[in-house]
From TrEMBL:
The keyword Lipoprotein does not apply. This is Tat pathway signal sequence. Pathway: Mycotoxin biosynthesis. GO terms for biological process: mycotoxin biosynthetic process. Keywords: Membrane, Transmembrane, Transmembrane helix. Belongs to the ustYa family. It comes from Lophiotrema nucula. The keyword Transmembrane applies.
Length: 266
């Protein structure tokens, strides 16, 4: 005769099995609930951590990045900006440009009015790039764009034809264009560009006058005007701030050479 224990182990009552199942069920339900809760809370925790570490590690567009001038952070303010200047067609081939709400012309036939607009935009801050004084890259980029604009009207600005300009100035313009390319890629604006249909032209034309989220340039101007005197009196220096003068590419192939017999800039 088999011991009682063995018997009950072999022949388990249906009710007991059901009870075991339901006990196991509730156990596993509790366990899966526990798993789910810990997964979700772990996920949230990781997300919060990553947000904090991204925020602290790299900075952001609205608060300033760690690669930017820290003292200029108070000047950062976001503003929704309606772009203007899309080429529009009217009466068949009549082309016109919308200069936007302020009607300021930055391009086109050169004039003192256009030069004043650029002066207002870049101002005397341009000079900050010549020494060891730091300036925000936005001013350098605008300076570069202005240089490209001026070379297109080289007779007006340099009393020379475009072909008559020396290689050094061309190298400077190439540097500017390459810099602007990197700035544009760096910011990677994802604002959608739509097309509009112009009946007169029977053509779809890109409508670039979209609303963009921008940093408010006006705020930077106000900040710099208020603090400019102080910042030029005691230029903010960082280690290696002369690197831009000494830094050359590692490989010869990546350097564009030009005829050094020409005067570089005149
Ligand atoms: C422009 O250049 C020409 C020579 O190419 C010279 O005679 C003239 O005086 C220059 N004008 C100015 C305003 O410098």
């Amino acid at each position: 005769m088999l011991p009682a224990g063995t018997r009950t182990a072999r022949y388990q009552r249906i009710e007991e099995i059901a009870e075991d199942y339901s006990r196991m069920d509730s156990c596993s339900r509790i366990f899966s609930l526990y798993l789910a809760v810990s997964f979700v809370s772990g996920f949230c925790f990781a997300l919060i951590l990553s947000k904090i570490s991204v925020g602290q590690g790299l900075g952001s567009y609205e608060s300033g990045f760690t690669t930017e001038i820290e003292s200029l952070r108070p000047a950062i303010s976001l503003v929704k900006t309606q772009f203007s200047g899309t080429l529009r067609y009217k009466d068949g081939d009549h082309l016109y440009i919308d200069l936007g709400p302020h009607g300021i012309r930055y391009f086109g036939i050169p004039s003192s009015e256009v030069d004043d607009a650029w002066e207002e935009l870049i101002g005397d801050h341009e000079g900050e790039f010549s020494g060891d004084i730091l300036g925000p890259d936005v001013l350098h980029s605008l300076h570069c764009l202005n240089e490209v604009r001026k070379i297109l009207d080289s007779q007006y600005y340099y009393n020379r034809t475009l072909e008559g300009l020396n290689r050094g100035r061309r190298v400077h313009i190439d540097h500017c264009l390459n810099h602007l390319r990197q700035v544009i890629q760096c910011h990677m604006d994802l604002t959608p560009v739509r097309t509009v249909y112009f009946e007169d032209m029977n053509a779809e034309v890109g409508d670039f006058d979209q609303a963009h989220m921008c940093r408010d340039m006006e705020k930077l101007h106000q900040w710099m005007n208020k603090n400019h005197a102080a910042s030029t009196d005691s230029p903010q220096k960082i280690p290696g701030d002369r690197v831009h003068r000494l830094g050359y590419p590692d490989t010869e192939e990546s350097m564009s050479t030009w005829d050094s017999r020409e005067r570089e800039f005149d």
